[in-house]
Design goal:
- By secondary structure, this protein is of the alpha/beta class.
- It has 17 helices and six strands.
- Strands 1-4-3-2-5-6 form a six-stranded mixed sheet, sandwiched between helices.
- The N and C termini lie far apart (58 Å).
């Protein structure tokens, strides 16, 4: 691991050690933050390690040993201390879920890199490019609920937060030079709020990719498959994706198998078929038998909504190519779906929808209204309406 020699991190697993750490952190204007969880090894993940770096020290906090971490909440909520994360959304949601912490004054180094058009967004890649520091990511998928943690894991964990302050300084300067600093601040604030809502948690079936393209009967099957997978994962205490991936659920709903021989063609492994093949067939059979008793119209499929979504996606893709960024930088999914649902027709109405992103309103407002107007002008009988 090509990193300069660093003093050992401070292990925080007692109230006394936590108090000493807080006394240091409260004097800082910026801290780097990261978490490690057991999400790849349990149905209900939890934060198993919390890393905080100041300009002078690295702290590794053991939430499995400390019963009360509420004194940390004031640090995260303090607008005078900038909290620097890399790929913050999942960390923010977990901190809120496990401890009730709300993060104010966020800087997300991964999102900053995306705003600048970087294509390689991993922390290890950015540190290699900017500081010639190489991180060893072998412990990335470890079970962080295990104790004791090896010296190698502890060093891996501290390095995930150690360089965040320095990385933030470089990215912030580049954002200002490219005229994207205001956009970054808006997005950091929006990310802080969105991370506290259920979409930041594992998504429900309605939010699976392509789910809104399914007609009511397919959506009915998808919901049944989702509920079976959740129950199975909970019973086995394993992450749902280790039962069946999201893409497989959608595929099964779109092309329901008639027998075990069809499951392999849809992408299930031999082990998945052996363990759950019969259950999947039974879930689908039961769901089909319930169709006559279920009002499929209660599972909405709005062709005009889909038309607006697709036109907004096409527009943002064109603009993103001009800007040299990914398309959701131009218009994040939450804002895109809000525009498609609320269909503002005037600049005042659009400003209300985009009230959390005045930069996007000023920069793209007229173009967005034009896209929505064009979608509304498509005659309903020209849209594909599935029965």
């Amino acid at each position: 691991m090509n990193v300069p020699h660093l003093p050992p991190p401070h292990w925080v697993d007692t109230p006394q050690a936590l108090a000493r750490m807080l006394a240091d952190v409260q004097q800082c204007s910026q801290i780097g933050v990261d978490t490690e969880s057991n999400g790849l090894h349990a149905y209900q993940e939890q934060i198993c390690l919390l890393q905080i770096s100041t300009p002078q020290a690295d702290y590794l906090i053991d939430p499995l040993a400390l019963r009360d971490l509420q004194s940390l909440g004031a640090i995260f909520a303090d607008p005078g201390i900038e909290k620097i994360f890399h790929a913050a959304s999942n960390d923010l949601w977990q901190l809120f879920r496990d401890f009730g912490f709300r993060v104010r004054n966020l800087f997300d180094t991964q999102h900053a890199a995306r705003l600048l058009g970087h294509s390689m967004l991993g922390l290890d890649t950015l540190l290699q490019q900017m500081f010639q520091v190489h991180l060893d990511k072998r412990h990335q998928k470890a079970n962080w609920a295990e104790r004791p943690l090896s010296p190698e894991r502890l060093e891996y964990a501290r390095l995930d937060s150690h360089y965040l302050i320095a990385l933030r300084q470089v990215l912030a300067e580049q954002l200002r030079l490219q005229g994207r600093w205001e956009l970054a601040l808006e997005d950091f604030s929006r990310l802080s709020e969105e991370a506290l809502t259920p979409p930041a948690a594992p998504p429900r079936w309605e939010r699976l990719a392509q789910a809104h393209h399914l007609h009511p009967r397919e959506r009915h099957l998808l919901r049944a498959l989702w509920e079976w997978r959740e129950a199975t994962a909970h019973r086995l205490n394993r992450p749902p994706f280790k039962v069946l991936a999201n893409a497989l659920l959608v595929r099964l709903a779109q092309a329901p198998p008639r027998g075990l021989y069809d499951l392999s063609a849809l992408g299930l492994s031999a082990q998945q078929i052996r363990l759950w093949g019969d259950q999947i067939l039974q879930v689908l059979l039961t769901a089909r038998s319930q169709e006559a008793e279920t009002s499929l119209s209660s599972i909405p499929w709005d062709a005009q909504w889909v038309e607006r979504v697709e036109r907004l996606r096409a527009w943002r893709k064109r603009v993103a190519q001009q800007w040299g960024v990914e398309s959701d930088i131009i218009l994040p999914r939450t804002l895109l779906e809000a525009l498609a649902r609320l269909t503002p027709r005037t600049l005042d109405e659009l400003q209300e929808v985009l009230h959390r992103s005045p930069w996007r309103f000023r920069t793209f407002g007229e173009a967005l209204l034009q896209v929505l107007q064009e979608a509304e002008e498509v005659a309903p009988n020209h849209l594909e309406v599935r029965q």
